[in-house]
User: Fold these one by one.
Assistant:
Number 1:
Amino acid sequence: MSERLFLAVALTDEIRHGLAAFLGERTIRLPGRPTPPDNWHLTLRFLGSAEALQRDRVLEFLDEHLVVGPFTLGFVGLGAFPKPSRATVLWLGVGRGTDEVTAMAAVGEEAAISTGFAPEDRPFHPHLTLSRIRPPTNVAGLVEQVGPFPLKMEVDRLTVYRSHLSREGARYENVDEVLL
Ligand code: 3AM
């Protein structure tokens, strides 16, 4: 049976609560459909539908090739895809640790390709999705208004998530971890 998988950096509970408080204290009303704090993560590589054997091979590849060591992750302020004046995704950006996260994503890409997934055609841009917006909306004022999120976290693993989609929205289940 196939499952819907993606590779990510999971957030600690401290960051999850800290970010929820940071947004709450600034009484920021996120436009669109906010992602629930329980779902917050940094996507490294969306894999999509995978069989159990393929998941095992991705994990083996990561075990062998992931040479990034533990590092400190810092955040900056808000940003938007494709651009703040016509945003469909509002996100929190990554500051310190960008090189390491990018290196993790590059190994995730190699793992995906070597196990038969199609190459990703979009450039990697580390981000934490806060809201999905339809129709596209101008969030330039909000992006400028919110300063950097000050907390940092130690990253010591890559997490493989299984995504369950339903009418109530997505639920992400941590199914495997690769230690850095
Ligand atoms: O939370 P973010 O936005 O970083 O957008 C989806 C989400 O990333 C992305 O994978 C993460 C977990 O669902 N995603 C979903 N479908 C995708 C697809 N077909 C996708 N990324 C690329 N291609």
Number 2:
Amino acid sequence: MKSSRRNFIKTGVIVSAGLALPSCEVKVDEKKVVKKPLVVSTWNHGLKANEVAIETLQNGGSALDAVEAGVRTAEDDPETNSVGYGGLPDANGDVTLDASIMDHLGNAGSVAYIKNIKNPISVARKVMEETPHVMLAGDGAKQFALKNGFKVENLLTENSRKSWEIWKKSNSNSPEENHDTIGQICLDEEGNLSGAVTTSGLAYKIPGRVGDSPIIGAALFVDNEIGAACATGMGEWMMKTLGSFLIVEKMREGFSPQEACEFAVSRVKSKNYNNEYFQAAYIAVNKYGEVGSYSLQPGFEYAVAGKNTNELIKSRSLNK
Ligand code: GLY
């Protein structure tokens, strides 16, 4: 219902503007073998997320159901201190979360700076499916979640509170890079792609800070005709180069997912005039189930799963 309204709006704009649009025709290589189902996630918590995503597909779920269920595992895990429950807080000691989700129809939903809601990815999906909007932020996002059955929960675990207290005592004014954001892409048996990203963002950030994760095109982009990409790393940099969108567009031009990820990481580095140390990494999957990954610094890992496989792979990096 909501999707058809969006499509109507989209079509309406094009028709009423009377524009001659450039051709967006995509050449599909019919002979290429498509590897599916396929799930790819960032970091080692991606292994668990992949397992749940594959299980979701096996139980009849779509790629969208799979990525939502997949990344929720990291949101629920108190040991993962960069996502959801157990995430490191901002400078005031509040855990604030960002998340985004995108489906094979090009629908997108996201939440930014949401507090006390454990599964922002599911709120992002509700924004996508139940509202005419793409992004809700702050208290509005929380109120929307509460109206939709989510509960207020304390997300600051004892461990995260202790780490925050140590940081406070250090009199540091700087946030700390905490870049283990989970991003996941799924290509299901139908050949449909979806993606999801969720994070607590930089540790001890200035209250109000929002990173790249809820920004469509920065941390996540899906075009079902081409492929999908997700980002993890320093949001302040990732959101200035819209790397996920860039990767999908490079794949549209004929780059492999690997080449496209390398292109996007180089772009981030080339715009980093201060030559600061930070991580920036991407994963990408194309329509044929080919996978790419590249990071700015060494140390990035990603998990790739099929029907009966799930393995953690060390990414290649630009800096050695
Ligand atoms: N990439 C996650 C963040 O910077 O918030």
